[in-house]
Design goal:
The complex is a heterodimer. By secondary structure, chain A is an alpha/beta fold. Chain A is built from eleven helices and ten strands. Chain A has one domain: Thiamin diphosphate (ThDP)-binding fold, Pyr/PP domains (Rossmann fold). In chain A, strand 9, helix 10 and strand 10 form a beta-alpha-beta unit. The longest helix of chain A has 15 residues. The radius of gyration of chain A is 18 Å and the shape is globular. Chain B contains 13 helices and 17 strands. Chain B starts with a strand and ends with a helix. Classes of the chains: A alpha/beta, B alpha/beta. Chains A and B meet through strand 2, helix 3, helix 5 and helix 11 of A and helix 3, helix 4 and strand 11 of B. Strand 2 of chain A pairs parallel with strand 11 of chain B. Chain A: InterPro entries: 2-oxoacid:Fd_oxidoreductase, THDP-binding, TPP_enzyme_TPP-bd. Chain A: GO terms for molecular function: oxidoreductase activity, acting on the aldehyde or oxo group of donors, iron-sulfur protein as acceptor; thiamine pyrophosphate binding. Chain A: It comes from Geomonas paludis. Chain A: This is 2-oxoacid:ferredoxin oxidoreductase subunit beta.
């Protein structure tokens, strides 16, 4: 039997705003399957986003949804989670939203290890504003503000998250659709701040400027560069040149923020 | 039983007022001269099972309180000048998303880093015009430690009643002075909570105007699922660019305050009945003004004081009425004419308006005001 996505979609809110060929819809379906697998209650789950194409996702989802300001998803979500730790809090957004204007909130959410899951759809570009380079645009790539080639080095989102203290970090791609729900489900189950980076595509503002002839070509690139962490263990540095690791990249058990704050309350009440 | 009496600092009184009002969440960032508010909240909130979080920056602090407010909590943040500038982005968000929250802003010298430990009254325009776009503004300017407590309680009431951010803006003198305070008993001051929805979750719309200009606000996690956005939205909370809806919602947001000025605006009239010279002052400056009025009266000069307690919405009606009765206004303030401009606007040329401005980090003393009274009488 086909999976019933409608159960989790707000009636009348589709079609979405995403362009044909955009991977955000694949990620949303993966998130829905993960939520279904885990049996999360709609009333007890908040989905929080910032600004940008990816951040429009919560509006389609039949949950407690909070579309905040540019870059601020993690900070709003921290308020929700602190005030109601019993709620599941899931953040979604793009690479520019999360790592540029929202970079400070992102790294501090990682540091606190607050029990929330952040899904970053990394399509290497500011799509909604028409294709300006983001902190995740590869060096040399073309964007509307780097027509001579991007001089900036790019962030590695996963390394950033690990360095800042996130206790679960995974990476998938929009091509590997069935892996997305597994990564997200594992991230949500993890107690602490979890980050799932999904390498995504923006055919409209990135693809056409960077000589991708079609969406299929962009998807094939994601297929070609992805190497599962297990497979990478047997590969040489030479073989891994230009590749990107996928799967669960990092996991550790560490006290999470709201549990630690519960102890503060206990100590204060003594 | 005798009431509890204490010798308290203004900032401590603001924190105590918030707790009296039922605040259970504080998100902040350290900044002089408001930090004591955060310090007291960090000590007191966990004792009652509330939450205190020190965020990574001022914007994050503002975001955290809005997020917490949407779960049904009464929320507070505290800051000062530079922090108020940073918070403006999300003060606008709280306005359009109609999320109750209280911001204590202790006024220090500015612009920019300015004079962090010097008193000032130069944030009052920022309280109204700081965030972009049309939006409602409520700003209270208490003049004593006792009043800072009481006005913080009232700020929570107004935020909850009108679903909008409310600012409490003591100048640094009021925030850092220590005075005797008599704590009101529980129940002695009115405490208002936001209106909860009465409809079933399936029928709930977060901006449903069939309930009036201030629609009930549900809490995340309470069985009501709804969408909140900073985009222009329809009554269902979802983004819209439909011209008629946007116009209606924008007008309603501002009307929540404009149509209720008599409920919101508070002021004190002192020796105004026969006054020929009216001083219009707020915060610590109004204390000097009262002293000057007393001295002037001793010298046979008919001076009086109109003390602004609610700076926004501005007491337009009251100032306009006074303008028809007095010869002149004197407006002492620790900025370069912000209140003065408002008084001129309301006076419409019917009475002269003489400002006394200080931005050197020193308070305006009674002698300075008395001198001006004699000059213009």
């Amino acid at each position: 039997m086909a999976f019933d996505y409608d159960k989790y979609i707000r009636p009348g809110k589709l079609p979405h705003i995403w362009c044909p060929g955009c991977g955000h819809g694949i990620v949303m379906k993966g998130l829905i399957r993960a939520i279904d697998t885990l049996g999360l209650q709609k009333d007890n789950t908040a989905i929080v986003s910032g600004i940008g194409c990816a951040s429009r996702l919560p509006g389609y989802m039949d949950f407690c949804t909070l579309h905040t300001a540019h870059g601020r998803a993690a900070a709003f979500a921290t308020g929700v989670k602190m005030a109601k730790p019993e709620m599941n809090v899931i953040l979604v957004g793009g690479d520019g939203d999360g790592t540029a204007i929202g970079g400070n909130h992102f790294i501090h959410a990682c540091r606190r290890n607050i029990d929330m899951t952040y899904i970053i759809m990394n399509n290497n570009i500011y799509g909604m504003t028409g294709g300006q380079f983001s902190p995740c645009t590869p060096t040399g790539a073309k964007a509307s503000t780097t027509v001579y080639g991007n001089p900036d080095p790019a962030f590695d989102v996963a390394k950033l998250a690990i360095g800042a203290g996130a206790t679960f970090v995974a990476r998938g791609t929009a091509y590997h659709a069935t892996q997305i729900d597994k990564l997200i489900a594992e991230a949500i189950q993890h107690k602490g701040f979890s980050v799932v980076e999904i390498l995504d595509d923006c055919p409209t503002t990135y693809g056409r400027r960077n000589k991708f002839k079609s969406v299929i070509e962009m998807m094939n690139r994601l297929k070609d560069i992805a190497v599962p962490v297990k497979a990478a263990e047997k590969m040489t540095a030479e073989q891994l040149e230009g590749k990107i690791l996928t799967g669960v990249l990092y996991k550790e058990e560490r006290p999470n923020y709201t549990d630690e704050y519960a102890k503060v309350i206990e100590r204060a009440k003594k | 039983m005798a009431k509890k009496v204490a010798f308290l600092q203004g900032n401590e009184a603001a924190a105590q007022g918030a707790l009296y009002a039922g605040c259970t969440f504080f998100g902040g960032y350290p900044i002089t001269p408001s930090t004591e508010v955060a310090e007291v909240m960090s000590v007191e909130l966990p004792k009652i099972g509330g939450k205190f979080i020190q965020m990574e920056d001022e914007i994050g602090a503002m975001a955290s309180v809005i997020g917490a407010s949407l779960t049904g909590a009464k929320v507070l943040t505290a800051t000062s000048g530079p922090g108020l500038s940073l918070k403006q982005e999300l003060i606008g968000y709280a306005c359009i998303a109609e999320t109750p929250c209280v911001i204590v802003n202790v006024m220090r010298g500015g612009p920019s880093t300015g004079m962090p430990t010097g008193p000032s009254q130069s944030d009052v325009m920022c309280a109204k015009w700081g965030t972009h776009g049309d939006h409602p503004a409520i700003c209270l300017t208490p003049a004593s430690v006792q009043e800072l407590f009481e006005e913080t309680v009232r700020a929570f009431n107004l935020a909850e009643k009108y679903r909008t951010p409310v600012m409490v803006m003591p100048d640094e003198i009021v925030a850092h002075m220590r005075e005797r305070i008599v704590f009101p008993e529980p129940g002695e001051l009115e405490v208002i909570n936001r209106t909860a929805p009465t409809v079933a979750p399936a029928e709930y719309k977060p901006y449903d105007t069939s309930f009036g200009d201030v629609p009930p606000l549900a809490a995340f996690g309470s069985g009501y699922r709804f969408h909140v956005t900073g985009l222009n939205k329809g009554q269902d909370g979802f983004p819209t660019t439909k011209a008629a809806w946007v116009q209606a919602e924008e007008e309603r947001q501002v009307r929540k305050v404009d149509a209720n000025v008599d409920d919101i605006v508070q002021f004190e009239e002192y020796e105004l009945a026969d006054a020929e010279v009216a001083i219009v002052a707020f915060g610590s400056t109004s204390r000097s003004a009262r002293f000057a009025v007393n001295e002037a009266r001793k010298q046979g000069i008919k001076a009086g004081l109109f003390r602004i307690k609610t700076f926004w919405p501005f007491p337009d009606k009251q100032i306009a009425a006074l303008a028809g009765k007095v010869k002149a206004f004197i407006t002492p303030e620790m900025n370069l004419g912000m209140c003065t401009g408002e008084v001129k606007r309301c006076a419409e040329g019917k009475a002269a308006v003489h400002g006394i401005f200080r931005v050197d980090g020193e308070p305006i003393n009674p002698g300075q005001i008395l001198e001006k009274i004699k000059e213009v009488k």
